[in-house]
Amino acid sequence: MTNDVCLVLEDGTILSGQKFGADRDVDGEVVFQTGMVGYIESMTDPSYHGQILVLTYPLIGNYGVPTETEFDENQLIKHFESDNKIWISGLIVGELCDDPSHWRLKYKLAEWMKKHNVAGISGIDTRALTKQIRENGTVLGKIVQQPSGPFLGIEFKDQNERNLVAEVSTKVAKTYNANGSPRICAVDCGLKLNQIRCFIKRGARVDVVPWDHPLNPKDFDGLFLSNGPGDPVMCHKTVKNIQQVLASSNAKPIFGICLGHQLLSTAIGCKTYKMKYGNRGHNLPALHHGTNRCFMTSQNHGFAVDATTIDNANWEPLFTNLNDNSNEGIVHKEKPYFSVQFHPEHTAGPEDLECLFDVFLDSVKDNMKNVTGLSIKNRLLKKLIYVPKVQLERRPKKVLILGSGGLSIGQAGEFDYSGSQAIKAMQEEKIQTVLINPNIATVQTSKGLADKVYFLPLTPEYVEQVIKAERPSGILLSFGGQTALNCGVELEKKGILKKYNINVLGTQISSIVETEDRKLFADRVNEIGEKVAPSAAVYSVAEALQAAEKIGYPVMARAAFSLGGLGSGFASNQDELKTLAQQALSYSNQLIIDKSLKGWKEVEYEVVRDAYDNCITVCNMENVDPLGIHTGESIVVAPSQTLSNREYNMLRTTALKVIRHFNIVGECNIQYALNPNSEEYYIIEVNARLSRSSALASKATGYPLAYVAAKLSLGIPLPEIRNSVTGVTTACFEPSLDYCVVKIPRWDLSKFIRVSKNIGSSMKSVGEVMAIGRKFEEAFQKALRMVDESVNGFDPNLKPVNDEELKTPTDKRMFVLAAALKAGYSIDKLYDLTKIDRWFLSKMKNIIDITLELEKLNCAIPEDLLKEAKNHGFSDKQIAKFIKGSELAVRKQRRECNIIPFVKQIDTVAGEWPASTNYLYLTYNASTHDVEFNEQMIMVIGSGVYRIGSSVEFDWCAVGCLRELRNLGKKTIMVNYNPETVSTDYDMSDRLYFEEISFETVMDIYSNEDAEGIILSMGGQLPNNIAMDLHRQHARILGTSPESVDSAENRFKFSRLLDRKGISQPRWKELTNLQSATEFCEEVGYPCLVRPSYVLSGAAMNVAYSHQDLETYLHAASIVSKDHPVVISKFLTEAKEIDVDAVADDGEILCLAVSEHVENAGVHSGDATLVTPPQDINKETLEKIKGIAKDIAALLDISGPFNMQLIAKNNELKVIECNVRVSRSFPFVSKTLNHDFVAMATRVIIGEKVDPVDVLHSENSKVGVKVPQFSFSRLAGAEVTLGVEMSSTGEVACFGDNRYEAYLKAMMSTGFQMPKKSILISVGSIRHKNELLTSIRDLARMGYKLI
């Protein structure tokens, strides 16, 4: 887009952008506002008269503007804050929406502004402008309708020198609700219409009078002083009139808002002052002096009352701003006079203190009856005071934390993040922590976090044993997902908590049960006048069918007390419901039948509440997918994009009401179904614990939810907790975002042949990504690439158009949608098929429009189009593909044109406050960096999205590396994009880039930072895949050289390397064509193994038993490994597999661990049961293994971690593969053998001298057994037999004096239950039957019935 208009500031700054609205020059004071909704209300607020308004949220105009011809019964115009008038001089935005979407839409924002002759500029880096105003103060500016300077003879007019109040005030008195009572005289200094509405809906008559109207107490029962623009000094007439009322013997109650507060304060002798840049936003925390409760307030003012000038004899401060300590209100100690700086009438903004109108009117009514009653001060105290329902009897000295166990679908790494934060919070409060969690791969189970860690099953029996031994006085149940909650409920039911006198910290079990039991939940919600979708709780299939008849089909059925929608689905008829009900009742004894609201919007809020009823919403999120798809399966956007201020705050107010009613203390999540064509909504559910959404909200906003929730569980008031990102503001506030966040789930359904690719109300995804940008398109395309590195973005050429797939979503629906847009499907047609809001569809169409432009080109690309493509989230590789060029050529042209990404901070406050935050992202929709690059740091690349094969174990390695570098005095940079991880916590590194792990992005960060080097070996396969690309561009890769990494990853090179050294391996051949592959397999004999290069978790690795198998598998492998060779090798049956994890320095091994697989070779190492130290490998074999490891380390000149897999058969050892990076068993061997392999590898990588350690022969007496965690119950039709391609979603490990004890504990930790009566035995070959005979006899002797 061509820039055609400029914003010129008095300090000489010139910013150019694109014009919209009126084509005219305007001037005014340039101010910023941090609200994320409510642009209509702000623009029509008279307090903004004469100002050029900068909106910090970059995406403006999304829901358009409603009609101006709709009035209420009192002839007040609806939806606006003044009668058909925009008061701002001009509007500055990052992006103007050209295709708004809302059921109330009448005008586009630009059309409405043009109608009212108001100018606007888009395409401005509003964050940079906000920071400039923050640092230098408000500044005079002018919008000039020319593309560039010079701007000769330009003059700047200071509107504060005018009496702005006289310009906005009514010229004649008006009466509203003439028959109402009491009579309120409202002095219009710039009155907002919602102030009138707030009085009228309480029955009052409102007489609106001009700003300088004489005030006779006989003419009214109460006096209201409105808000307004400008300097209060200009309103000396109003002040004089107020003083006369105050001096009158007939004391009438007075209530002032904003400017009205300043005028009342001036009338009693206070001084006012001009603030540096004012308070304008919807999240300003005001602390009430009488109760110490803090409330979210909406504000818009540039002047404030000097609290030091208050006459303390008769008056006192009422509220104080917790961020800047400015005065927010005054109250007379005895008489009915008070005023507040904020806007309790809201619009836009939170409705938390609308009750001030009730307090004022109650006082007026008592005064009319000559009833002395309470003073305003005491009325407010009575109204706002809160007595905690559950008092913490004593502060605990030791706390038990229940973890979540092995990662599974629906319960993943987010609980490692939340549990780690909880432990940190407890440590700060000097409280001992005891953690029970059998997940060996987690950061929270590492040394240095919890004081004690028990690797035990999360069952009441084992937890009681720990309680008996440790005697904690408190227990935390909210940080371990559904597993911890369910265990806590069982502990309560069995009386264990009472028996040992343990307090449940935070939300009580009664509240947990009320939110989990669907009938109880519905009943409790109905008590406060809210509603859930019509539903019934049933306990049998017959009851389910009866309930569905009553509610009406279609219905949704779901199991109660379950995780991630386990056992849920939609039914359109009896047969479908029967099937669903039978399935769901196998998971839970209670089944919920809900009315189907498919196609409605799904919106959720993360809510925080303390024991003293301070309550805030930290993040609101909107699902791109309509209701009917589990929120864990949905694409989610934060903040919501298509909700108006009214909808946003309607749901926010309901959230606070519900959470207070359930007496939740800590953090929780509330989900809504919102009708896309009205304001009708239902509450879907409340999760009374931290959830996957909580982790997303924390990372999306920068607000440390889990840390704050842990502090609140100890009874610490929310206002006393600092915002750890800014360091200066309170944690009792609602974050302002000046960017857009997109979350997309990751599915691995292709690993399960018979599993349906359809997604719905039951979770199937194994992980998720989060992308950040200042355009939706930018964040959306980033996220698509993060989910799958083989995808370039919103690519219309990946899938064919398929209407059925658009109606019934699959894991690949987005690419079908892209193809449909390219094929010319209209937005309306796509909305009918998908029910995805038109706003999102329009944004997706923008991407396809640019794609079509790019596809017309051949190698060369115009600079304007290149810039536009980058602004919309296109990667260099994506552009290169469309223009038929190369990624490096696009990169070279881009940098020559100075089209570079800018580094922006996530600071929770949209730039309003200085923040030394290290939480960063890249965007092309900006003009300046937020940070300076003046220190050399070491970059550590994380593991990216959790998927089958790469999960929390790699995050443990990355975090361990960061910690060790910090211990060694090194500054660190983490690059990762997974919101579930500890590595993406703000306090784990010196700089955190929430960004793609791609050559382009890592290279851009590396170039900006001029990093000391990059560590790739801690993040698993993903970083290794870009090693050679980075190396070719001369990036400094620390540790093992990329050539050596390539020699190990490239199957052909590695196999050839082993042959040259004479290291034994299964016979192999590189695939060149099908005929030679077939000849090789015939020569060595089937079965044969097909092995692609540079893949993770055995992707496309298959065992071929026939020619037909071979052809099928070779085709799949060649797709996965397009740029690298595929190797075929002889598959050895009945062999034993061995894992080796080691650290080497310049090819010399420093430490080495050996783990043996319980299962025979042929089961992927990630799905195998591992035992360490090895129990069945003799000393001679161990020496051979060490010898092979030594040779390979030397051959590849390894400096850092590596993992090797061997196969043993007939006393022969053969090498299968070597990964020159950490492996998923690194946490297991490190914790079992009491030696931190990652810390040692980190020291080696940065060149520290490290002495060898023999961990194989240490005095460690315990045996560790690692067992995989499967999620087959969530994947209907999944093949449960194991093979060479990994299918487990997580792992657990337990310890024992021997492998049998450790194995049994580990199996129970995965949910395995000891059989009570009968055992079904199914065994294959005669040899296997004979092997099992002894065990079968033992089971028979134990009294089991064997079938």
UniProtKB/TrEMBL annotation:
PROSITE patterns: ATP_GRASP (PS50975), CPSASE_1 (PS00866), CPSASE_2 (PS00867), GATASE_TYPE_1 (PS51273). It holds the Pfam family CPSase_L_D1. It catalyses: (S)-dihydroorotate + H2O = N-carbamoyl-L-aspartate + H(+); hydrogencarbonate + NH4(+) + 2 ATP = carbamoyl phosphate + 2 ADP + phosphate + 2 H(+); hydrogencarbonate + L-glutamine + 2 ATP + H2O = carbamoyl phosphate + L-glutamate + 2 ADP + phosphate + 2 H(+). Gene3D superfamilies: 3.40.50.20, 3.40.50.880, ATP-grasp fold, A domain, ATP-grasp fold, B domain, Carbamoyl-phosphate synthase small subunit, N-terminal domain, Carbamoyl-phosphate synthetase, large subunit oligomerisation domain. Keywords: Allosteric enzyme, ATP-binding, Glutamine amidotransferase, Ligase, Nucleotide-binding, Repeat, Zinc. Residues 522-714, 1055-1246 form the ATP-grasp domain. One of its GO terms (cellular component) is carbamoyl-phosphate synthase complex. This is ATP-grasp domain-containing protein. It comes from Polypedilum vanderplanki (Sleeping chironomid midge). The lineage of its organism: Eukaryota, Metazoa, Ecdysozoa, Arthropoda, Hexapoda.
